[in-house]
Automatic annotation (TrEMBL):
Superkingdom of the organism of origin: Bacteria
UniProt keywords, alphabetically: Oxidoreductase
FAD-binding domain ranges (all copies): 6-343
Enzyme class: oxidoreductase
Stored InterPro entries: FAD-bd (IPR002938), FAD/NAD-bd_sf (IPR036188), Geranylgeranyl_reductase (IPR050407)
Entry-linked PANTHER family: CONDITIONED MEDIUM FACTOR RECEPTOR 1 (PTHR42685:SF22), GERANYLGERANYL DIPHOSPHATE REDUCTASE (PTHR42685)
Protein name: NAD(P)/FAD-dependent oxidoreductase
GO molecular function: oxidoreductase activity
Entry-linked Gene3D superfamilies: FAD/NAD(P)-binding domain (3.50.50.60)
Annotated EC: 1.-.-.-
Amino acid sequence: MKRNMYDVIVVGTRVAGSPLAMLLARQGYRVLAVDRATFPSDTPSTHYIHQAGSGFLKSWGLLDRVVATGVPAIRHLNFSYTDIDIAGFARTAPDGVDAVYCPRRTALDTVLVEAAGEAGAELIQGFTVSGLVFDGDRVVGIRGSEAGGTEQEFRAKLVVGADGANSTVAKAVGAETYEGSAAACFIYYSYYDGVDWGMQHRTGFGEQQFAGWPTNDDQTLVAVMRKRDRFREFRQDPDAGVQEVVSQIDPELGELLRDKGTRAEPFRPMLYPDNYRRKSHGPGWALVGDAGYHKDPFTGWGITDAFKYAQLLSEKIHQGLSGARPLDEALAEYQVERDAQSASTYELTLSISELSLTPYYDSVFRATSMDEEYIKNFFGLIAGIYPPEKYFGEEELAALYEKVNFPLEARHVSKSGVTA
């Protein structure tokens, strides 16, 4: 029987909400997690989980369950930025994770939801939150209903919105955006049979990009990204548009797609939400995942960041609910730490997601492509297991430029444009 009073209510049970509910329930808290979807359920996503993200799954005892869904391990990555080619892989992570995975969300989210339930969280699927319950300015619960049912009310010491970019919780509490920028691109993607080209992430001349990586059911996700002002034109014939972009960037892969690839599902078009950070805590409430912080999916950090900051938030909630410190103080620290830890990834994503490189990034990546050890550092950076302050360190870059005999006039060791 479901209770009406909980320690924490989590609204949204995908890649941020389910891990949060699971981690809190494992610590013995009374947790209710609700979602308007019923699982298995798909959602727009490019599925990519970095080594750091798989490390969280492993620490939670869930990586083997995700792998058991049939998603293949990827141990070689191909990146290109116009005429710069970087191929290889990162070193094995300290936790032993030596691959990246791109599971279908129907598979991944189901594993996470089931794990939350097994941990003791109470779950209501197919539940739409219609509003929050307030006591003065403090959130004390939620109202909502299952499909066709009467409105119900549940109360808790804390309500967490893990309900995405259009978060009902964020809107209800008036969470303000304090950092942001307009989204640059759109994406079209689908799933293909017969395309066995490993992991590709290629940005070409003309501000266009395609990506592809293997996923469940022996299929390959193929995605194309272009600037938003090309969306209306592209949607007229996306099959032709995908083929054109892939062929222009890599004619050999374009031929493979044309001759052997068969699209297995309808296209998923996405106009990206803007990049933003929202205030993610207040009296009786918090935000996690895309509800509080979103950036362009170009670097594929959405799922990994959802895992990372769900765990961080669970730790801060535990501090508050256990009496170790005031809950409101712990939640404020969660936002500060999230912003600090994600700053380098956020800045890098916004800098390169315009589908063109600044002179600084052009010089860094071009020099990287010329050195085997720095290529491993690059993929470690992408994987979340190599410190950005070392990869982009001025001394490290100066040494790299010397090692590969990079042209003096093109050596950028800082974003200010100062050359070595």
